[in-house]
Amino acid sequence: xxxxxxxxxxxxxxxxxxxxxxxxAAQFGKRVALIEKDKVGGTCLHRGCIPTKALLHxxxxxxxxxESSKFGVKTTFEGxxxxxxxSYQQSVVDRLWKGLQSTLAGRKIDVIYGDGALASPTxxxxxxxxxxxxxxxxxTGSVPKSLPGLEIDGERVITSDEGLRLDRVPxxxxxxxxxxxxxxxxxxxxxxxxxxxxxxxxxxxxxxxDENSAKQLQRAFRRRKIGTELGVAxxxxxxxxxxxxxxxxxxxxxxxxVLLVAVGxxxxxxxxxxxxxxxxxxxxxxxxxxxxxxxxxxxxxxGDLIATPQLAHVGFAEGILxxxxxxxxxxxxxxxxxxxxxxxxxxxxxxxxxxxxQAGERGxxxxxxxxxxxxxxRSVILQTQGSAKVIAEENPDGTAGRVLGIHLVGSRVGELxxxxxxxxxxxxxxxxxxxxxxxHPTQSEIMGEAHLALAGxxxxxxx
Length: 463
Ligand SMILES: Cc1cc2nc3c(=O)[nH]c(=O)nc-3n(C[C@H](O)[C@H](O)[C@H](O)COP(=O)(O)OP(=O)(O)OC[C@H]3O[C@@H](n4cnc5c(N)ncnc54)[C@H](O)[C@@H]3O)c2cc1C
Prior knowledge:
This protein has helices spanning about 15-25, 40-45, 50-65, 80-105, 160-165, 180-190, 210-225, 310-325, 355-360, 375-380, 415-425, 430-435, 445-455, and strands at about 5-10, 30-35, 110-115, 115-120, 125, 130-140, 140-145, 155-160, 170-175, 195-200, 225-230, 235-240, 245-250, 255, 260, 265, 280, 285, 300, 340-345, 350-355, 365-370, 385-395, 400-410. It has about 475 residues and is of the alpha/beta class. The model has no long low-confidence stretch (mean pLDDT about 95). It is globular and about 65 Å long. Strands 1, 2, 3, 4, 5, 6 and 19 form a seven-stranded mixed sheet that branches. It has a five-stranded parallel sheet with strand order 8-15-9-10-11. The protein has three domains: about 5-145 and about 265-325, FAD/NAD(P)-binding domain (3-Layer(bba) Sandwich), CATH 3.50.50; about 155-265, FAD/NAD(P)-binding domain; about 345-455, Enolase-like, domain 1, CATH 3.30.390. The structure holds flavin-adenine dinucleotide (FAD). Flavin-adenine dinucleotide binds near residues 37, 42, 48 and 49.
């Protein structure tokens, strides 16, 4: 292990944002130190994106087994072997983790394991060792938040960290928070056989998504018998002999084996020397400009530590942006509206661009189309329901102009949003997309069909 030293760039935190920055910086010939107190890959690889998606895949297999008779296939569903699911999940994580470690080694990045803190505007201390850099990149990420008075005990009152490692399927669960993490856990546990209720203070599930997507998800969850308590505040939790009893505003009480607290994640920034070295912060998030520069010229910050969307691919993009800026490239600020978002529940919810409500708030006149999956052959084969909603700016002549938002709901639609982000980020108009041929029968045809309809030439669309 390196014992201190000088580098071109010192990165504090080896999650998505930090390691992406290190990898890209190395391509410019920079000497990089990446300081990580736990495991490279961070939340996404070890406690977030990858382990949740492995669980969701196991859930999909369980659903397929349970529902196979719909397709004329005889199976018997015997239940979930939770330890075996965990070992499948771990095998996926381990394989990717090994790959990441060898990629970092291949780019000659010095990975230093230890708890780091900013010691000056150009150095990070790990124990007694000091790593100086021409530039320091802060990428210490985030951890689960709770509510005042709501204590996480790790057994009955848990966060996603413990939820991902449960070696049993809870008979019942209350999920506090109907955001992405809460919705994904609800989907998994319901497929595994739990009795699940989501409690969300705002009036819709996935509050950041278009209202139409949230309504369709809610309808699908109702069909799956996932309970929802929307527009209701949590008041208190008490532990019972068998689990928890949760009191909601208005007096309603819910009982379950576990309470999963999924009320958001907060930045890891206290006690790390940031403020002491002049790094300006707001509510714990490091303040940055559009190019991830902090108030200290030699320090940048990326990922969940800054107040941008808490997504791994946002962390990657910010890490790359900083590396390219330090590498002398002419970089542009990220258009955060153009970042694709996916909730990998059953059904999936995916989007890019703005919602109808945001268009209204920004005073933009729009034309919209909402193409139902019921008209798409592949979706009917999969027996999934949902829609593709496309929002375009309305031209002065009343035709549809630039596409501003794409919102999808349905099984497997997450993969389609990659096309959606090209459409949005390349400023495409419905006419441009209508001219492209989508393979039949695929779910991707819903993208083609929705844009054909917006361009005034619908094919299989009746509305
Ligand atoms: C359950 C769950 C599911 C998710 N699913 C998705 C998904 O499907 N898609 C998606 O895009 N995003 C998802 N996310 C979000 C995604 O994981 C985060 O946005 C991403 O990990 C942020 O990357 P980061 O590098 O900013 O921070 P982190 O990944 O949190 O990495 C920060 C790293 O810094 C290290 N560190 C902290 N303090 C110190 C210190 N003092 N010294 C040394 N090292 C330190 C930590 O150990 C950690 O490894 C999910 C998150 C959760 C919790």
